[in-house]
Amino acid sequence: MKQGVKYIGKGLCDFTVWAPFALSVSLKFEAPEQRLVPLKKSERGYWHTRAEGCLPATQYWYLLDGERERPDPASQYQPQGVHGPSEVVDHAAFRWTDSGWKGLPLPSMIMYELHTGTFTPEGTFEAIIPRLGDLRGLGINTIELMPVSQFPGDRNWGYDGVFPFAAQASYGGLDGLRRLVDACQQARLACILDVVYNHLGPEGNHLADFASYLTERHLTPWGPGMNLDGPGSDGVRRFFLESALHWILDAHVDGLRLDSIQAITDRSDPPFLEELGEAVHAAARKAGMAMVVTADHGHRHVAEGGRHMLAPDEPLLADLRCHPTGDVRAVYFHLREGATAAAHAAFRAAFTARFGDHWVLLTTDEVDALRLMGPDPLSQETRLRVGDYTAVPLGADVIRYAVVPAAYRFMRPR
């Protein structure tokens, strides 16, 4: 039973949503006319109905317990943004021209990471298409799109998405993404999509109204982590597996790049990431495609002793003006403005006592002298961003900073 809406044809649609704690779920249609259609609850908390009069572009909400009006968690199009209604999409209406394309093997890929909103003045999927020849001229044969799942506003870094099935409306939505992917493959360019399955952005995040998608048992630098191994996690895992397959099967992307997998905590067997990889590759084999699944921050197999956690109340952090920034393998520390030489010495001594056998603590001048950030001297802006010290591991260790759970209570599952 696939989640979301499936357009069957002739105005018929199947609707499925996972809401195990709801006492009642109804569809509320906005256009072309307002009406309510109740859903029937089935096993494991899934609700389903087949509704008539639902042509493509029909807009709808889910009404939970007769009170809470929410967009579809598996919405494939949010034309009015994260707070607006969801819209029915007809996948069969798009005409693909990529039948001869079979993808590229990973070793042959020369990738260009691309942000849709900033790559062209228009900031859309379709505006990229005339520039594909330029990328080919550089020797590029693969573009990696930074995250495009629907986020609040019109421009975003991409990592605050809250609809894992919906391509950003201001970029052109799912059809715009399809046109870009189709054009890429006509130009013999593979297209990989960056997806975020470790957290959700704060604004427009309605998943907690439906089920226990998030948990404070597992914290990330951005708030509660995904519930992939606790009570109710079967539905959560299924939701994100279906999201991954949606991008492969409905958008025809050539692969997925999984963001910050070190922030995915999962003690189940088999782990979610293994299931995802197997599902994606099985779909690719069935389609006769070469499919790539890559990961950002390959820290899943860091030994337990190599994973270090900094808590907000640690004495080591007492003289910092903000929490540690940067990356888990290049951690930036910003001491308070006007910190004395004694404060700097105390910080270095405390860091060495805690991490000295595993990490090197470099001043920003040392980072600059070693040209660790490129061949040019550090700009003033970079110095401000990096702060006073950069911690670099001698091996495969990582340092993570624990966010205070209370700061994210507004996202707590019901």
Strand-residue proportion: 25-35%
Number of strands: 24
Helix count, per DSSP? 9
Low-confidence stretches: 404-414
Could you say which overall geometry the principal axes of the C-alpha atoms support?
A: globular
Mean pLDDT: 89
| Euclidean distance between termini CA atoms | 24 Å
Class based on secondary structure composition and strand pairing: alpha+beta
Regarding quaternary structure, how should these chains be classified? single chain
User: Largest sheet, described in full?
Assistant: 5 strands, antiparallel
Computed over alpha carbons, the radius of gyration is 23 Å
**Helical content (DSSP H or I, runs of 4+):** 10-25%
Describe it for me?
The structure is a single chain. It contains nine helices and 24 strands.
Chain-wise SSE layout:
Elements: E1 4-9, E2 12-18, E3 25-31, E4 35-38, E5 40-41, E6 46-51, E7 59-64, E8 68-70, E9 86-87, E10 111-114, H1 116-119, H2 125-128, H3 132-137, E11 142-145, E12 149-150, E13 163-167, H4 173-186, E14 190-195, E15 214-220, E16 223-226, H5 233-250, E17 255-258, H6 272-287, E18 292-295, E19 307-310, E20 325-327, E21 330-333, H7 341-355, E22 359-363, H8 364-369, H9 380-386, E23 389-393, E24 398-401
Parallel strand pairs: 10-11, 11-14, 14-17, 17-18, 19-24
Antiparallel strand pairs: 1-2, 2-6, 3-4, 3-7, 5-6, 7-8, 7-9, 12-13, 15-16, 20-21, 21-23, 22-23
List descriptors.
9 helices; five-stranded parallel beta sheet; single chain; 22% helix; 414 residues; five-stranded antiparallel beta sheet
